[in-house]
Structure formats: C-alpha cells, structure tokens
Inverse folding.
C-alpha cells in the first residue's frame, strides 16, 4: 500500500474522498481471514499471493449465507473487498517498482478514490451453514471487509478479443 | 434487473442494505454514457452488450482526469459501476432464464447487497483532457455512476489454473 505521505512525483486530488460526503453507502457482508497481520507482510497483489500458495478464508455474516447457494468447490469467483487503510486522493502515484509516476487508473494500487480491490480466486472448500469459504490465495490484511462475491465467467470476464498467451 | 417485487422462490434478507447504516461510503468519479434509457433496453450482461457491438463512453469528473495517465487506446480495463436502481436485499433470486432459484453470489445479477457491477472492456479512444474514454460495449443504463477503472492484467485476472477453452 501507499503510505499517507506522497512520494516525489505523486499528485493529490483537490478533494479527499475519505472526508467528502459519500454519494452512496456500502455494507460489509463479512471479513477475509488471512495470515497477514501488517502491511509489509502482505503480498503485493493476487499474482504474488498465488505464488506464496497460502490459502485464506472468507467469512460471511449470517444474513448473507444463503446467498452462497449455487457455488461449489472448484469454482472460480471474483472477490470484491474494501481496502480501508489506503489513502483515497492520490491521482498520480509512484509505486516503488515503477520508474515514472503514473495515473491511479493505470495501476492496481489499493490507494484509489474508491478503495475497492478485486481478486479472482478458486474455492477450495465451502461450508454454507457456517458462511465460510476456503480460497487458494489473496493479498490483503487479516480482517479486510468483504463487499461482494461474483462467479467468474469466461464469456464475460475474458477480454472480448482475448488470445491465450501461447497461441 | 430484478423488479422490486420478489418472484416465487426468492428470499429477502432480514435487513435491506439500502436502508441500513452504511459501513463505508463511495464517491462517484464520473458517469457512463450509453444508448440505453430504460431497463428493458439494456443488454442482460456484458457478453450480450458485446454481441450488440454498440460503443459507449466513460465520462470522468474533472478531479480524476489526471488519473487516466498511463492508459492507452487498445488497453483492456475493468470498469466498476454502481447499479443504483437495483434492490439490495435478495439473497435467493430466480432469474427469468434459470429453472431454479439460486444464491445471489452465484449470479451476476445487479441486485446484490452492494450493487457494484464490473465489466471488462476495451478502450477504443481516450481524451485525457476531456476525461472521456470510448469503450467497445457495456450493459448499463445511460447515466450510471462510475466507481473505478483498473487495468486488466492476465497474471491477476485469469484464474490461477486457467486453460483456454480450445486446449
């Protein structure tokens, strides 16, 4: 994550969404349980999380557990979650590994106007009554709030003219 | 979209997120401009929108335009948008084309606890100064609020064990 102090070349928007009146409200439908208790421990992104190969859990609040009906072990889902610790006003950012500052919408940084992260993950096991899903990997802090789960669908989630890397 | 009257087999949660105190707030960073002025006109999803082949526009508010730096024509991006007209409390739903009711998290319905939709689209043209991006297709009503844009990255957004359909 980006620290709260801008780095050289970074640009803040003239408003801070964290202290601007909201246009709409989200509710937390559960929490993500991971091994990562502090930012430096977290994988940088879902690709790095998969390389580490450490499973995580999604824990749904009782209200929403019936909504898991129709999901099964082996399914791929898109998880949306709320990166509540990230600053929200950085329009131009300078990630450590990039030579030049660039726009927030060309980055997957958690620091964005609406700190909604997404990860495509695989269901290792699912206990609907307990509202608990074990997944292959994720990149966020323990306790991160959950916003949504969606089934991953190739006809929707692959780019329109997608060609696999090897063809 | 699902109408506000539950269909046979549908189940509402004991709370309605639309009238529950929010856990966090989102801001609208712009609007989506489409051909669709009413729900019945809208494509059912991004796959159907692509089949119709009608481009759409993303219009960013001035505050966020510099955040487009680093995006280019031909790039694929993930668009997050707010389906403000959809009911939010339906945990079990019965879409018209499905024989059985099923859980909201196994569906891509806009009716969900947090009505955040996502579509993977292609940039046809981009005018950063005007904050305007032309995209290949999208499935939502004209004027739908924008929440976020993210670059689509194969190493993150393809499932971990993804095999192309033909191999």
């Amino acid at each position: 994550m980006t620290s709260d102090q801008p780095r050289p070349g970074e640009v803040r928007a003239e408003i801070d969404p964290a202290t601007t009146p909201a246009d709409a409200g989200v509710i937390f439908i559960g929490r993500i349980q991971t091994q990562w208790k502090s930012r430096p421990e977290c994988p940088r992104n879902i690709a790095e999380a998969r390389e580490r190969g450490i499973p995580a859990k999604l824990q749904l609040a009782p209200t929403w557990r019936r909504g898991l009906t129709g999901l099964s072990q082996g399914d791929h889902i898109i998880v949306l979650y709320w990166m509540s610790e990230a600053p929200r006003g950085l329009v131009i950012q300078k990630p450590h590994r990039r030579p030049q500052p660039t726009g927030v919408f060309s980055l997957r940084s958690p620091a964005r106007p609406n700190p909604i992260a997404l990860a495509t993950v695989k269901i290792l096991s699912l206990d609907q009554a307990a509202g608990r899903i074990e997944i292959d990997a994720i990149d966020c802090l323990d306790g991160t709030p959950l916003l949504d789960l969606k089934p991953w669908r190739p006809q929707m989630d692959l780019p329109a003219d997608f060609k696999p890397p090897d063809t």
Observations:
- The longest strand of chain A covers residues 116-127.
- The mean pLDDT of chain A is 93.
- The radius of gyration of chain A is 17 Å.
- Chain A has one domain: 25-155.
